[in-house]
Amino acid sequence: MSDSPHDESVEKALRVGLDDFDLSEEDRALLATDGLDAADDGEQPGRPVVAIIGRPNVGKSTLVNRVLGRREAVVEDIPGVTRDRVAYDAEWSGRNFTLVDTGGWEVDASGIHLRVAEQAEVAIELADAVLFVVDAKVGATDTDEAVVRLLRRSGRPVVLVANKVDDQKTELEAAALWSLGLGQPWPVSALHGRGTGDALDALLEVLPEKSAVAAYERGGPRRVALVGRPNVGKSSLLNKLAGEDRVVVDNVAGTTRDPVDELIELGGKPWRFVDTAGIRRRVHLTRGADFYASLRTQAAIEKAEVAVVLIDAEENIAEADIRVVQQVIDAGRALVLAFNKWDLLDEERRHYLEREIERDLSQVSWAPRANISAMTGRHVDRLVPGLEVALDSWDQRVPTGRLNSFLGEVVAAHPHPVRGGKQPRILFATQASTRPPRFVVFASGFIEAGYRRFLERRLREEFGFEGTPIEVSVRVREKRRR
Description:
This protein is an alpha/beta fold.
């Protein structure tokens, strides 16, 4: 897809008009590169990933700020300020890596604290090395020892950081952390910078040059996560695709615990399939192996490029099915819906299932669909066209001129409603990135959620985007004062 001369002249005129508005440095950078990022140029950065883990209030975010050399992570003297995983680009001694700040990990977490602990565990799963932060003044707690068990199970290299060591006396207390069995504790004061260089040197010694857990390598087999609630037939489908009993299959929900990678030839080309444990209804009610299985499922989605969500066609579409679909969308992955056990349905069930799909899955009407039987292998080849179209859409880029011409036509036919005597104007739009496609719209005023959904729908009608979530974000910019 390329711009016509008309599209190019529209883009040029709109860019000139933007000069009348207050734009940030970030805006100008986006407009200068036209949204082309390193990943779009075909380069896979592959930079190693470091997760910072520890219980609440041990100073993880302070350490992040110290490593970055700027106050980026929010720091307060109360536990639980950081809740999500947040990734930052970091550098030490000429080595670039991604630093992931996490919320505090607790053993018996519930409610929002459970989500925090869950995010921390997924961060470990997706990291090449871990900085484990312990409060040297408090010493090793039961929670710290539980984290050690978690880290041992992950097999990731760990650098133990004894934080809040501000003087010689506390340095002796830090030495007691040898008892955790993770090797030398590095005494550090994240607040004052004392000892952080030595800890980071130790980190670089165990950090690989290139990430071994990068979400995916370009040019290799496309990575597919098989996900769904327990007992919908994920393992049966993988066995059928592989042509052998690769995975234990049992009617007991939750037989699968570890993700199993499998290179499978489908439609004449190789695909890397991951069979994952079913996503549990309430993670905090499951402990031990099942608890970690549900976390690994989330990690598998994030490592994949496209997810096949398997749904049992014999049963009513459940809340858990919708939640799995939402998890794929939230992770920004391409999506294919597969309705299993289709061969067992009578006409009446098929009729009611179509009504359920219209009612419960209307938000993903754009996702390709395949009706299959994992047990007999019927129509499993129909997954291939769905996977291919979803991945093509996930990678799709709309030229800036074409995008602005199209939006101009849409807005002229259906302008934004007037609110408070003002009508916001769309000034310019660009596609910021692919995988999934993300669009940034510059506007002179607030664009309502309903109108954003309308724009997203029209983008799909015009450019396809079948099988991929798309994001439309709006930056409101005011006219520059003369």
